[in-house]
């Protein structure tokens, strides 16, 4: 099974991607047509494509045979794995075999990784980690028909502003000879290739790394890795800067300072008792203290490049695990799991989210997942109740609410 089909919330539609679609203004994207009968929806897509300037035969051939895929909708609604805590999630994804395979891939494609770092400033471990998590180094790239997936999700009305523009990006790739609507397959959300890129990402950041005149993300490691690196650079990655460093925290401090909302210098963290687990601070850059399982669990600081990870994937747990695995591929030791207080199960987390919402907090969807909104709300309620405000929900907090 494709790792990304299980472990994936959706990527954002970047502003650049939106602006790259000439026939759709941003307001139009926000209110893109969806729903109704599937055939009428497809006819609407075809009409819009013709308005963009594509000829009737091209549009007809592109959309011929497109169908609604119920398996895509089922996958879109099954994201329960993100209810796992960071330690469990990281141990599930990062096996010794996956680590050793990554190191082997680094040696096998040494020239590609050298070019990637030289041209885009992306260290090998960063792309190796994404390559591992997205498709197990290209072994499992997904068997969903990409066009069916994109049209199904655009029609579904949950996120038309993301998926409808991707249909036209795929149409553009089709006219370039880099997309076959009948045979191109990938993840359930329309992402293609070894590092799983949406059609608009391919248009914006695709690199012909092997010089064959095409961007083949499914079969060419050079194309896939360099395209992924260019996309990260486009998202804001700063060359030569670190992304994540493991630290130790004191027994007591102002825990409300933890979380991505606060960025302090290493000197400021050090004055509060935060220290690198080993060695020195990696950079004199603003950093956030990350306590994925509270003050008694693992502890890291995230530098500015860490925030770029959220442009690739919106799950806090996925992002932290990918950033940590990049460190491991670069030689870092296994993190100290500490002795965190037991967290909440899925049902308890949903109950907590309902209580937080009733108190006026914006926790997003009641899904049992400890996302950024829920963490912020938890920290606020911990402060109100006099608990250590480390953003980690416990049974004691739930009981007191």
Please tell me about this protein's structure.
This protein starts with a helix and ends with a helix. It is globular, with a radius of gyration of 22 Å. By secondary structure, the protein is mainly alpha-helical. 49% of the residues lie in helices and 4% in strands. The chain has three domains: 170 residues, Helicase, Ruva Protein, domain 3, CATH 1.10.8.350; 86 residues, no CATH class; 55 residues, no CATH class. The strands form two sheets. Strands 4-3-6-5 form a four-stranded antiparallel β-sheet. A two-stranded antiparallel ribbon has the order 1-2. Helix 7 crosses helix 17, helix 11 packs antiparallel against helix 12 and helix 13 crosses helix 14. The chain has 20 helices and six strands.
CATH topology (level 3) name of the largest domain = Helicase, Ruva Protein, domain 3
Order of helices and strands: HHHHHHHHHHEHHEHHEHEEEHHHHH
Structural class: mainly alpha
**Annotated CATH homologous superfamily of the largest domain:** Bacterial muramidase
Q: Mean pLDDT score, rounded?
A: 91
Please sum up the structure shown.
The chain has 401 residues and is mainly alpha-helical. Helix content is 49%, strand content 4%.
Label this structure with key terms:
Helicase, Ruva Protein, domain 3, single chain, two-stranded antiparallel ribbon, MltB-like, 6 strands, signal, Lytic murein transglycosylase, SLT_2, peptidoglycan lytic transglycosylase activity
